[in-house]
Design a protein that fits this description.
The chain has 211 residues and is an alpha+beta fold. 31% of the residues lie in helices and 30% in strands. The chain contains six helices and eight strands. The longest helix is centred in the N-terminal third of the chain and has 24 residues.
Length: 211
């Protein structure tokens, strides 16, 4: 083997060792997960805009907004087991609601018309239930590996107002075999300190394709 090839192998081994050590330090650390997102943006790059995006700290998603937060208890898809959780949190903004109405075609005045919504039982505009439940999908996307939805059952127990901060928590409660898992899914309105959606999902977690 040539000296050049030996040098390349040594360099690759050092890189792999550094990557493994870094992953170990970050694993199961809530603060580290959040810091990993912020660290990828130079201080001068952030203007506090919710629409600003940064490269993801994990390979299962491409970009994250600076205003989004997530925690997870597992980083290696080979180590996923019962009890592992992911929590995703963001503000449901007026822009989110209007964009969802445009994309989905659900232009119910309850979500878009302040005067109309004020006369309803809610007394104000509220976010689409399907928009809010979509945060479960955001949490699932942050499981290690490639997560594929197979089923989802939901029960809605309360509304989410425009501008409320909402969290979605998924917890693996059963391994079904063949890389399939059953999860408990819960969404909370953090501003009202209330659970607004309960449910259950089944997902398939594939290996990420090689790039």
């Amino acid at each position: 083997m040539s000296h050049e090839n030996t040098a390349k192998r040594n360099l690759a081994a050092m890189a792999d060792a550094w990557s493994a050590m870094t992953q170990t330090l970050l694993q199961s650390a809530t603060a580290a997960n959040r810091a990993a997102i912020s660290a990828m943006v130079p201080p001068t790059a952030s203007n506090g805009s919710e629409s600003e995006t940064v490269p993801a700290s994990i390979p299962s998603i491409d970009h994250s907004s600076l205003d989004w937060q997530f925690d997870r208890t597992v980083d290696d898809p080979d180590h996923i087991s019962v009890g592992d959780t992911v929590t995703f949190e963001k503000v449901i903004s007026d822009e989110d609601v209007r964009a969802f109405a445009h994309v989905s075609g659900d232009t119910n005045r309850l979500h878009l018309d302040e005067e109309f919504a004020a006369s309803t039982r809610f007394g104000e505009r509220i976010a689409h239930g399907t928009l809010v439940s979509g945060l479960i999908s955001a949490a699932l996307a942050r499981l290690p590996g490639l997560t594929i939805y197979l089923s989802q059952d939901l029960e809605f127990s309360g509304p989410v107002g425009i501008g409320d901060r909402v969290s979605a928590r998924v917890e693996i409660v059963e391994e079904l075999g063949n890389d399939q898992y059953r999860l408990e899914t819960v969404i909370r309105d953090e501003d009202d300190d209330a659970t607004v959606i309960n449910g259950e999902a089944v997902v398939l977690i594939d290996d990420l394709p090689e790039e």
